[in-house]
Predict the structure.
Amino acid sequence: MGQKTIYIVGLGLIGSSLALGIRRDHPDYRILGYNRGEKSRRIALEQGFVDEATDDFAAFADRADIIILAVPIEQTIAFLEELATLPLKEKVLVTDAGSTKEAICQAAEKYLGPAGINFIGGHPMAGSHKTGAISADINLFENAYYIFTKTSRTQKDAIARLTDLFSGLHARFIEMDAQEHDRVTSQVSHFPHILASSLMNQAGEYALDHPFTNNFAAGGFRDMTRIVESEPGMWTSILMTNPEPVLERIAEFQSRLSHISNLLASRDTDAIWDFFDKGRRTRKEMEIHKRAGVDSFFDIFITIPDQEDVILQILELLRGISVVNIRINEENREDIDGILQITFKNKEDLDRAASVIRTKTSYPITIS
Amino acid sequence: MGQKTIYIVGLGLIGSSLALGIRRDHPDYRILGYNRGEKSRRIALEQGFVDEATDDFAAFADRADIIILAVPIEQTIAFLEELATLPLKEKVLVTDAGSTKEAICQAAEKYLGPAGINFIGGHPMAGSHKTGAISADINLFENAYYIFTKTSRTQKDAIARLTDLFSGLHARFIEMDAQEHDRVTSQVSHFPHILASSLMNQAGEYALDHPFTNNFAAGGFRDMTRIVESEPGMWTSILMTNPEPVLERIAEFQSRLSHISNLLASRDTDAIWDFFDKGRRTRKEMEIHKRAGVDSFFDIFITIPDQEDVILQILELLRGISVVNIRINEENREDIDGILQITFKNKEDLDRAASVIRTKTSYPITIS
């Protein structure tokens, strides 16, 4: 597509990783970067993620063929407003990387629409607790879903320009309505975060009068509350820019709790059993075992003896096979797992691993 | 304490593992076993977990100095009723292994009380997805909490007999009120299970109209719903024998959701931030990172490059240091983790591991 100039606004984990993906397939593109903080700006320059860097957002805007806003949601909206006041290339295309889409798309419509500036909302659905350019990872979005919003003003060729720009990410590009994106993420991410934090707060207060609450929390409780330690600011922004779908999920969930409460109050054993059984069947049908953003998820479950270096022994056998994840699930009576679970990226690796374990050890294995 | 005869009723994972623990410190004790199913009965005999086995509960009752009921809750209650009708040794002591305690203790009071039969409720707080005598594990209860209920009729010497009997489990014995046990477990286990199953059912129904719900479920959602795949029957029994504390937790949680709903409806950004921040701080204060049943939990977090055999390399460095758990948390933007987390059983192992990683690698580490 010829030499282009890309302006990445925000050189944190996301922006820097996007830069690496662009470099991979478009080494000839010129990449300009904005970052408020000096450290990531310096690292991005030193590492060559960007060719030039600034802490003045307006400085590079007029040189860009494509502008990628990779900053927090509120900042993204503020920059959209500012962009409308800046001199830009006539065919400039603007996109973003925010976790919610409708509020951002509405801001783009409001500020860029009148100026006829083309905008496509984007959400690369991957990330990390790690932050900053120092954590840039060209594989961060591999096999991850990368959402592009359909809007009334969306032109096919605009999305084509972005999928070409980001081809080096090896992500899975999906077009969907901004509203639908926000509804789905409210169900699988935003509302569950409220549930987890509420449960944590409830248990914390309960522990004041019932101290063993702190001791008896088992694997299930820990897993349910793990995300509670996320950074509060990001989640506040997410809720504030996606309130209606979240409010709707809360209300719907309230009615579910009331229903279960009634079943339990009336000691309806069969209905309670059906409730738990439905959840179990639903989870299996949802193939939730798959990692979000990965097309397929390949697990091997190995029943191992409780002795030293068994994991080491197994990984030695698997040397050269790329491991996506590994865990020993705690043995907890009310939990379901209790064996060494190793996850591979594809069926080939899984099959190789399974045959090695079968031939070289006597450990029972099952495959997901 | 001289030769004793122990009658273990139920030779599943729990009963068989208890038998192994008794054998370790009391090789001279005679262990009799009941199991309805033939397979676990045969395995328990073949493996020597028990000296004799029967499928007739009443058959061995009169020979036992101590009777351990390790069957489902309803069956435990049924056997308590039946015990009152059987000829038993005068000083027989009866205990159980059920997940809820008050209903069982009340049944014991009702059926055994009048006959003056001594009963102490028990809850060995460990387990596994594995079942049957085939899964018996002498280490299953190591460092796990083992609850003994205090009742009006409890005699110190009765609990002393049990802690002596089970000394080989290397468990952490705690005496607590049956009601308090059920309240605490309703908060950290029973109610959270309802939350997880409700979330799963909600998402499953949402997916019917919003199919991407199946695709976008990320690590946080998966962790929150993992326990949903547990066996429905056990959880139904737990709720049915602990309804009031669970109902109280549901109602209390409903008010929390209503509160958050109001904060969000009124766009109270600061209050929402405080809500998330409180959850994060509470979780850290609760040291929920500790594994339930383990006195202390020692984690090292290693930031590793995304390349093959890094875990292998690290475990080779840690050779000989016992690893309790290991995991790479998925990189998910809305999640908090994304580094190799290795858990050790004690501070010594953690310190050894940390110094090895520090000296032999350049990977950044943090220690919990």
